[in-house]
Structures are given as structure tokens and as C-alpha cells.
User: What shape does this take?
Amino acid sequence: MAIADEVPIPSNLTGNADDDAPQYVGKVHHYPAASTRSGLVRHFGAFDESSQAFKPTPSTPDPRTIQEALDTPDASDWIAAMDIEIENMRRLNVFTTVPRPPNTNIITLRWVFHRKFENGALTKHKARLVARGFTQVPGVDYSKAHLYAPVMRFESFRILLSIASWFDLDLRQFDVSEAYLHGEIDGDVYMEAPPGHGDGDTVWKLLKGLYGLKQAGWIWHERLKADMEGLGYVQCKRDHAVFRIGNRSDGNWAVCAFWVDDETGVGSREQLDRVADMFCHKYGISGKGDLRWTLSLKVERDFNGHKVSISQHVPGGEGGRLA
Assistant: This one.
């Protein structure tokens, strides 16, 4: 049964040249699978009996376009994930809708879909709206001086693990929620509205960083640096993604390292909690607690033997012990 047989399609239905995805502009309330936020309508085939038994695995390919997402048995999960992403962007004031400016570069976008698994079990459907950075114009949409953003060096990560193991220090972690959506953009950057959120005469003016923007990493790191320095932390001169405070001899000491939005901290619980509480209050965090998984690495501690081991899971095979 075709969608058009059940759901009246708005007259301003258009196609997306980037991924050939349908755009349902306006509200579609004639069927409960229609989303009022993403503006997209789920394919009816997703409701047949075979779809109810669909159980994706880590080897199941993720959709590459909106149309592929709508054609999957778990289409309603993808629509919900897109709704959450748009809602987060509105809540964080990432954009404002403005009339299309004349003689101005308008960058394009795409949706990226990913199923998250833990120990082989599906935990989340993630949809992320990303800018197509290759459509940005240097000197107009970004400065070439803002292309670099440091991340924690792997040598620094191993050193932190060694320090925690040798001195029996707390080894903590957290993940900043929607990190790139918090940094403010300096300048005017315009982007096409996603399917279901524009009529052709309006575009989005970006107010905050967005995944895919060439300067997004730099914007987030500058905000991260300011936050850490505001807590009294000092940036490491040899690894700019590492920050420290205090001296180990006085017991009130900590080092925090960041891989974009993933934090690894070692030191006193008091100092580490100060960092986690600040990021939780300002941005929201997840995964707060003892370091167990980070950057696809499993971390295991042997307190009696003063050892920390890390291993990496290879999809379809056994994990490999790295240290």
C-alpha cells in the first residue's frame, strides 16, 4: 500500500538533491507515525509483521540517507531520534530561521544515522544533523586559523592510567552531551533548513557550532579551555587537551584529559567531582563514574597488583589486549 493512498501529501512536496530524501513541509497529522518535529512520515512497510521481529546486530548496516532510514523496519526509532536532535538544537539555541539572504553562501547538510550497541545489545538509535563542511567558503564561513582543535594524545592517556595505578588514585570519566552545540559561532554562517523545516524562502542562521563545520572543533575546545581555567586548572604545554590542578603532595590534585567530549580524569575525588559537576550543570553529561569504557577501549583495574589493562574489541572477533 502506498503512502499516498492513506496520507495526503502536502502540495509543496520537494526532493532533496543531496540524498533524494522526501521533504514533507508542514504538519502531517493524518497518521500517528507522522512526526510533528522532524516533519517526516514513516513508511507503512515498517508496520508489517516481519518488522516487529526485526532485531539489528552490530553488523547491521546503518541507513545512509533519510529515505533509507524511513524504509527500515525500525523507521519509527529513526524518526524519534531525528526529533530528539532537532529538539536539542532548539533548546540550545543553535539556530534561528531567517529569510534567505541574497548573494550569500548557504552551506548544505545531511543526516547521519547510527545504532549504538553495548556488549552486542542495542542501546540507542542516534541521528545527528551535520553540516557539509566542504560547502563552506574559507574567509567567509570560517577562518583558516580556526581549523585546529587538539585532542588528548594516546601517550597522555596511557600516562594517566599508569599514574592512577601506581598511586591508587581515582580514575574517572564522563561524556559531555552534544558538545559541539554549545560553542558560539563568531560571524554569520547560513545553512539550508533540513527536510520538513523550510519553504525555500528561509534558511537557518547558525548561532552555535554544529558537527561538520570546519571550525566546530576549535569553537568547542576554546569553550572547554575557558571552563577548565575558570575552575583553576592549567593547560598542559605539551598536550593542549590535558589540564591539571594542584600538587599530588597535598592530596588535592587532579589531571583531566579530553578527547573532544570524552573526559578522563585522575586524582582526588573532590577535584574530579568539581569538574564533572560543572560540566553537568552547564551542558549535561553522561557516563559519569569509574573509567571502564572510553574511545572503544575497555579499561580494567587490578588494585591488588597495581595494574591497569586496556583492550579493544574487534567487531566479529576477540578483543585485543593493548596494555
User: Anything to note?
Assistant: Residues 154-180+216-321 form one domain. Confidence is low (pLDDT under 50) at residues 1-36, 41-51, 315-323.
